[in-house]
Specification:
Helix 2 runs antiparallel to helix 5, helix 4 runs antiparallel to helix 5 and helix 6 runs antiparallel to helix 7. This protein has a single domain, classed as Ferritin, CATH 1.20.1260.10. The radius of gyration is 20 Å and the shape is globular. It has 11 helices and no strands. With 313 residues, it is mostly helical. The chain binds fe (ii) ion (2 copies). One fe (ii) ion binds next to helix 1, helix 2 and helix 5.
Length: 313
């Protein structure tokens, strides 16, 4: 592990002129492109946003995901590559969930957390700086990473709030994290046979273990994963509960609340005069939410350092 908590790929680099290496990168970038395309759907969450802070976040996120999509398209063009269809694991992990408690945990906190692992750890470390196309690509990736950190922090903040309001979510949340970790190796199974002969792929088992351990830490910091791993029966029960909640979530309809709360959210409610000093307790000033999100990053990494720190290594 390197200083900022990223996995250490040592000096392993891809060679952008080797067809075999380009094919591996094409696979990774294609998953990223699909993830960014579905990330744009977060705009749908505006309908179920239950606070102005949430509405501001989803407007900003939708703009950022659209920009990421374009940035990855630019990377494909710069490398003269054509995208592949997404892997089924990515399709599963990136599917939109209308049920807000699952959305914030699975999409933002865990899903975008793993996206960050791939962008920050794999791409920023293993793209070769000697290639003239790479510095600009890394510059774009650092922008994406900075914004993904915000998305993860939002997911963590909302997950903690929901756990406080609905402590029963802890068990299905835990089961879903266990399941997400179980499907993760399927994503790289296509490369396992070649793992021994490629400097970057040789790190895959170590990287997967690093991601699993980081998510485990993140789950513990969020109060979801128990300090000591439960026995098989408890884990199976949690996973069953998680699956049941996931299945139910597929039939969940978005419920809007902002049209019922906007007056209070704007600090214009009847109690305004009485609560003048506290009127902004839920409602942040424009631009304020971004900072609150930035200051709330746990994501199993401790405090994040600047993305650029790893970029040129
Ligand atoms: Fe993104
Ligand atoms: Fe994102």
């Amino acid at each position: 592990m390197v200083e900022d908590g990223s996995y250490d790929f040592g000096n392993a680099r891809f060679d952008l002129n080797k067809p075999a290496d380009r094919e591996i990168l094409r696979f990774i970038l294609s998953q990223a492109l699909y993830g960014e395309a579905t990330g744009v759907f977060c705009g749908k969450s505006l309908y179920s946003a239950d606070s102005l802070e949430a509405a501001r976040f989803y407007v900003r996120q939708a703009k950022q995901e659209l920009a990421h999509l374009q940035l990855f398209a630019d990377i494909f063009r710069a490398l003269d590559m054509v995208p592949l269809p997404a892997h089924w694991v990515i399709k599963l992990l990136a599917s939109h969930n209308n049920y807000y408690p699952l959305k914030v945990l699975m999409e933002h906190a865990i899903g975008e957390g793993m996206v960050l692992d791939i962008f920050k750890d794999i791409l920023l470390q293993t793209l070769p700086d000697e290639d003239p196309r790479v510095p600009l690509i890394k510059k774009k990736l650092r922008v994406v990473c900075r914004e993904e950190i915000e998305h993860v922090a939002w997911g963590e903040k909302e997950t903690k709030r929901l756990l406080h309001e609905k402590p029963w979510l802890r068990t299905p949340y835990y089961g879903l994290i266990e399941l997400q970790m179980a499907v993760l190796p399927k994503l790289v199974s296509a490369f396992e046979k070649r793992a021994g002969s490629h400097p970057v792929l040789a790190h895959l088992p170590g990287f997967l273990e690093h991601v699993r351990a980081r998510v485990d830490r993140q789950g513990k910091e969020l109060g979801i994963v128990p300090a000591a791993r439960p026995g098989t029966a408890k884990r199976v029960y949690a996973m069953g509960y998680g699956v049941a909640l996931f299945v139910r979530s597929q039939f969940a309809r978005s419920k809007s609340t902002l049209e019922k709360t906007y007056i209070d959210e704007l600090g214009l409610g009847l109690r305004r005069g009485l609560d003048q000093g506290h009127a902004g307790a839920r409602t942040e000033p424009p631009g304020g939410s971004s900072q609150s999100v930035k200051n709330h990053s746990v994501n199993g990494r401790g405090s994040e350092r600047a993305i650029g720190d790893r970029a040129s290594t």
